[in-house]
Batch of 2 targets.
Target 1
Amino acid sequence: MPTTKAPEDQYTAAPFVPKGAGLGALRQAASGCRGCPLHGPATQTVFGAGSADARVMLVGEQPGDQEDRQGKPFVGPAGKLLDRALEEAGIDPAETYVTNAVKHFKFTRAEPRKRRIHKAPSLREMTACGPWLAAELALVEPELIVVLGATAGKALLGSSFRVGEVRGTVLEREIHGRPERLVPTVHPSSVLRARDDDRRAAYEGLVADLEVAVRALG
């Protein structure tokens, strides 16, 4: 008899995404997602959060250690830096919707009980999680998507995306069947990783890209 693949071996979240659901029901359904193997080691699903009427949707890579523990996106150091940059650019963080291309924390660690080290998700894992992001976009219907970093860019715009080539510009693309406007920029974690003497310039670059988003909104 042929063996039936486990849901995580199918690498798609589609069977777990309820049709016609609102954000609350989507979030609840996502908590049980087994659309790829990342759900196993992670503490929990980290779904998007924010205003369902947001004009701006911010899409990052994946939850980090703090997000995985708390179950909320962008609550760690990178999230705090992002909030500060948004406010400086003229965007109220409370009026945005923030989410990630991948909803589970992917990590490695050298030894048990050692610190969990972020590991970039694969294109297959990003694609598997795509149905959740498509559902969020369809419900929020943002006027603009801010793409935070290379991984989010690849998830939304394809594997050839290079953040350095298009950051701070307004792109118009069809994403999950919807015409969207997008402004790519770096992920705020890259600002935190910058050398001390480069960090100020990296932060100012992030703010400048977010100011492009403000101007695009009009």
Target 2
Amino acid sequence: MNEATDPYCLAPGESEALLGGHPWRRFVVLGDSVAEGLCEPVDGYSDLQWADRIAAELRAIRPELAYLNLGVSGLRSREILATQLDPALAFGPDLALVVGGGNDAFPATYDPDRVDRALTLMITALQDAGADVMTLGMFDVSYSPAVADWLRPGLRQRMRTLSTRTAALADKLGTIHINLTDHPLSTDPGLYSSDGRHGNARSDAVATAETVRALGRRL
């Protein structure tokens, strides 16, 4: 199987049909390694990272789209807020992707309320500045074969809490939400990188498809 034949990826012409005539001209990304892009290559799938792929799909319709990715690996939600919100607002976006909480939820010290507060501040500031905001329920990395068995139960519970809380926040604030946690492939060990913390190129291809479909629903 490859990206062209993968039933979970974009079909030929699907992106153009969903995004045709989209209004967005300035796309900014805030977040951690999921935003920055650290996925491992997979034969038959594009090496382009998820956020870059979203920009490419948007630019296929509107070539003049300006794109800024501020994502930095390893940051927790409060660090994303502290270092990326101001430059994101200065960019003047009309579309923003906010990805955060994964690094908060990995250790047992995870504080859901603190993550919610940081995400809320970023989302509302961007919305107040005129941007449509996308949020993410991440693939559940506890299914990665590189995660030690003893870590799985606690990590799975925390990732589920993060996803549930982010979805509730998205519903409350009216974001464009991409729920990958409940995707049929989220439990597939073949979707994850060997580092036990990230997805691979197939996961990014699937995430791109789900993002484009979510944007299409908003349109």
